[in-house]
Amino acid sequence: CEVVSAGEYASIGSRVATACAAGTFSSSPGQARCEVCPGGKFQGLPGQSACDICRAGYICVPGSVVELPATCAEGHFANGTIETAANCTVCPPGWYCAGSSSPAVQCSQGSYAGASGQSSCDKCAEGKFQPARGAASCIECTGEGGYCEEGSVTPTPCEEGSFGNETGLTS
Description:
By secondary structure, the chain is mainly β. It is 0% helix and 21% strand. Strands 1-2 form a two-stranded antiparallel sheet. A two-stranded antiparallel ribbon has the order 3-4. The radius of gyration is 27 Å and the shape is rod-shaped. It starts with 7 loop residues before the first strand and ends in a 14-residue tail after the last strand. The mean pLDDT is 89.
């Protein structure tokens, strides 16, 4: 008798090896049955020895043959290892999540997301700035010769003939 290859199986008394169906796999030779791809993985081809990992923004239930676009709510994202939309991850502070199959995105400079689960970032208010990406808050504009307009990345220096020596200046 011959031993079946990885990606195949044969039950007692089999005359031929049978390829594992899509959505299943057999990781080693000599198997009597194939295993179902676990949640977070998929396999679209028959006769395989492993399953592929679901990409970020997709859902793969056990036995998946394809990746399905995630349907996460706003403020949540799919990290690629989820089985259902109920397992979507809450967006962390400093990031925003549009929902559906969109990934988490860092807030840009001059903006912030102060809480978990935000679907958009807020611009820094007048009198504040933020030079970093992925911030959870903005920094008070210091009174060192500059001011901060809404959405400032850095304080704007006062023009010639003017000065600023107070915190939170807006012009």
